[in-house]
Amino acid sequence: MKLEKIPLKTVRPLYYKEICLGLLGFKPDDDDGEKKVEAFCAEEVEELVKKATKDHPQNPKRPSPPLIRLRVDNSGGFPTFNVNRLAQQFVNKVANPQDIIRFHAKVEATSGKEKGW
């Protein structure tokens, strides 16, 4: 019995990207670091939105705004910014404006001996 592939037509597209601020040339002690990081993240989200609209043409049965997630590695003391302010720019463009950006910092593992246990 041969199976026939049927493409899903009602799935909301999800676009995910990880960036590391340290590898992109940002400096943790920059005076305008917060604004530069926010502008860079807004640009990256805008590119993901454009890619989603290009890759998935409109379908009346498909939910139109895509899910976008940008995971930002700010290890090393890089500044963060108010994500809600950035989310306001993408309210009608994405399905999850409050969850577009997630900051995370890598935690260095230490053994019990290093802590003096």
From TrEMBL:
MF-aspect GO terms: manganese ion binding; single-stranded DNA endodeoxyribonuclease activity
Segments forming domain Mre11 DNA-binding: 1-115
GO biological process, one term: mitotic intra-S DNA damage checkpoint signaling
InterPro entries: Mre11_capping_dom, Mre11_DNA-bd
Pfam families, per the entry: Mre11_DNA_bind
SMART domains per record: Mre11_DNA_bind
Superkingdom, natural source: Eukaryota
Gene Ontology CC, one term: Mre11 complex
Stored PANTHER family: DOUBLE-STRAND BREAK REPAIR PROTEIN MRE11
Protein name: Double-strand break repair protein MRE11
Organism: Holothuria leucospilota
